[in-house]
Amino acid sequence: MKKIFNSLILYAGLFIAFILVLSCLQLYENANRLFGSKSSDSNYWLTFSKKLTPDNIGRKELLGFNENEVAKIKNWSEVKNIYPFSANEFKASANGGDFIPFYTDLYFESVDLKAIDVPLKEEEFQVNGDEIPIIISREYLNLYNYGFAINQGLPQISEDFAKKIEVNINITINKENKTYRGKMVGLSDRIHSVLIPKKFLDSLNAAAKLELGSQPKIYNRVLVQVKDSGDEGLVSKMKENGYESNQESLRSAKIKSKLFLVLKVIAVLGIFIFALCLYIIVSFIKIQFLEKQEEVSIKNSLGYSPKKMVSDISRKFSLNLMIVLILSLGLIALGQYLIAKSDVSNGLLSMYVNPFLWTVIIIIPLLVYFFVNILIYRWLLKSWKI
Description:
alpha+beta, six-stranded mixed sheet, four-stranded antiparallel sheet, 11 helices, 14 strands, elongated, transmembrane, transmembrane helix
């Protein structure tokens, strides 16, 4: 009865160990699916700016990014590419004419078209005559519809209708005023700005400030394509250099890093329990041999191979281990299915556990079999001098 109780405790410990380790591996994959994984195929975008301090306020050369800083960021191992923003160096304003009676001072930025999340070809994002194609942040349209329009009694505008509206763009360069027609061609979820074609903006800046051609380029902000927005190394380098970005992205990075830390601690605990169970298995087998020392000695004298006797016992434990693993993975697979079906997954999680986890049903029992077999056999030869 005592032997049965000890065996139950042993296999219960193994069951807990496998649940902890294997569930951590599956949760690690789930976390990568929810928060994004670090891989060569992953694309995450962060807009870097510098923190305002008493030393750099009003000083563009300190507040912006120079060419050396852009090159340095591009060389970070966490960064895939970097796209600097160009900003207008001239005065600009917009008005809605008779349809939408509004007036506002305006700022423009431009960035490489490859970095903009609006499916436009190069020829579609060019100035034609006096018509300027404009891409604005989707948040700006939402602010107008749910804030400005409602409060001011103005008509709300859908995305499709916004693309049909033209606004007057007034640009002043060297005291000379020129009016263009601005037409929205897309909404960006990635970039919170008012974007116009880069070549056009650069040409206007060059005309507005001739000295820019001989001065080192300074960029107010940079758009950075990274492998993983939750990379602790990336967050650390940003903090080190005084760079800021979208706080929501950094918040998810902190959540992800803390979650992975908890998973690692749980996994280490599971591995410790598993190692402890292995030690108990070895001790258990040794006790069995000690209890049957006389029987084993007689069998050995009759020609039974000690290796065969050890192998039989090790095989028995390995098969029992396989059953425990199947039960553990079955429970994890059920949990994964229920989580994937729940609202928490947001449709991002697979309903099935990682196929690699099923291979442990074969790998771990085989490793345990060879480990226990060799260890017990050496102990048997050394202790009993067989």
